Amino acid sequence: MNTPRPRNLFQKIWESHLVQPETAELPAILYVDLHLVHEVTSPQAFSQLRERGLRVRRPERTLATMDHSTPTLPRDVRGHFPMADAEAAAQLSQLEANCREFGVELHALGSERQGIVHVIGPEFGLTLPGSTIVCGDSHTSTHGAFGALAFGIGTSEVGHVLATQCLLQRRPKTMEVRVEGRLRPGVSAKDIILGIIAQMGVGGGTGHVIEYTGSAIRGLSMEERMTVCNMSIEAGARAGLIAPDDTTFEYLARRPRAPQGEAWDRAVAHWRTLPSDPDATYDAVVTLNANTLEPMLTYGTHPGMGIPVTGTVPAPHQLTDASARDSLERALRYMGLTPGQRLLGQPIDVVFIGSCTNSRLSDLRAAAHVFRGRKVDSRVRALVVPGSQEVKRAAESEGLHDIFRQAGAEWREPGCSMCIAMNGDQARPGQYVVSTSNRNFEGRQGKGSRTFLASPLTAAAAAITGKVTDPRELLR
Ligand SMILES: CC(C)[C@H](C(=O)O)[C@@H](O)C(=O)O
Ligand code: SF4
């Protein structure tokens, strides 16, 4: 008898969703279980359908929300939302019209379950182990935390999936990123992923689907696992995955759209077969030691330019590669930082706690832990933006909003907010932002803005002291 070939998690999901395997000429055709939609990358896709007289193939497997262009201030006295500009307003009303015309469920601005697309999928219990999930958004990798193969697609592909529920894909390679050990107090999931990207570089995962393994990953909650998988794309990877386990099932068991009753039992039995087989292999393996990891901070203009918060900014002359040297020089010029300088003590202007990386309840609790009984430095503007209406309600029921407000921080409505600055929330030119989001590109948080990416603990600590601070100094 032949023993079955050992397979890793990615291979199991890929093979069970193949409508047609790839050939030399043609990519594979992959079935899509869940298609998430938002206002920025869907308008042309719906127009394509309209032009060709097509319908949405599986509206019941399509879910839309408004997040990127939504204002995070409540309705004004006349009951109107304070839109950033006409373009944002048009995107939102267009999504509403498209969803109505094509019969797609929409969680619109002002509704009870609205939120960032990568926050609400898991909340509903729609993000399921072993499934395929796509969205016209690079941070779709977030859903990989549940052992789903989830990745971002372009606008024309959004059209393909709307019309056919399938996608043309070349099979990616696989990479194991093994994180062993235990995080020390003050070190969080965000520091794991910033540490991994600092080590592998922003191109380190190119062409691969990463599976995160090891004791440190197993020890993370679902929300923490989402933070790690969220930034897989910032390492260049196609997607990030974590094998489902009891932590996953426990999270899903309480969700409104997850399978119920007998269907639940059948689902869990299937999900238990998904983890990589003991002898499964990967095309590449990378390791990181959690025991020695420190709170991380980026100093430059891509997420791979990260160092321990206690570290010093690297000097371009230490680099032998000319293009790496040029990009570091340019980054330090943009950031207004000096080679060899320490980051601790660097004055900052804005703190943003939010985004699909770090806007869930546990992130807000971590930040509140630092804010409690303290005041935001008088020179700092601090913005706390929950990832969804559900997160907002949960946080308010614990009184977290009071802690933030009493500290002098702004407590906002859910949305992408200052992660992408296309909704009215932005930093001014030259300002330094300590941000819990995932991208620190030039101008990302407003023209000329300078971003330090960090964990919620590190961001909150900076809000209190007005400068880059080791959060462990403020933990009690
Ligand atoms: C607007 C969208 C296409 C974009 C993405 O794909 O990631 C955004 O969410 C981002 O984070 O830059
Ligand atoms: S929160 Fe930021 S990273 Fe996430 S989907 Fe919105 S804009 Fe993209």
From TrEMBL:
Keywords: 4Fe-4S, Amino-acid biosynthesis, Branched-chain amino acid biosynthesis, Iron, Iron-sulfur, Leucine biosynthesis, Lyase, Metal-binding. Transmembrane segments: none annotated. Pathway: Amino-acid biosynthesis; L-leucine biosynthesis; L-leucine from 3-methyl-2-oxobutanoate: step 2/4. GO terms for molecular function: 3-isopropylmalate dehydratase activity. PROSITE patterns: ACONITASE_1, ACONITASE_2. It catalyses: (2R,3S)-3-isopropylmalate = (2S)-2-isopropylmalate. InterPro entries: 3-IsopropMal_deHydase_lsu, Acnase/IPM_dHydase_lsu_aba_1/3, Acoase/IPM_deHydtase_lsu_aba, Aconitase_4Fe-4S_BS, Aconitase_4Fe-4S_dom, IPM_dehydratase_rel_enz, IPMI_cat. Its cofactor is [4Fe-4S] cluster. Binds 1 [4Fe-4S] cluster per subunit. Its EC number is 4.2.1.33. Residues 11-466 form the Aconitase/3-isopropylmalate dehydratase large subunit alpha/beta/alpha domain. [4Fe-4S] cluster binds at C356, C416, C419. Heterodimer of LeuC and LeuD. Belongs to the aconitase/IPM isomerase family. LeuC type 1 subfamily. Catalyzes the isomerization between 2-isopropylmalate and 3-isopropylmalate, via the formation of 2-isopropylmaleate. HAMAP family: LeuC_type1. This is 3-isopropylmalate dehydratase large subunit. It comes from Archangium minus.
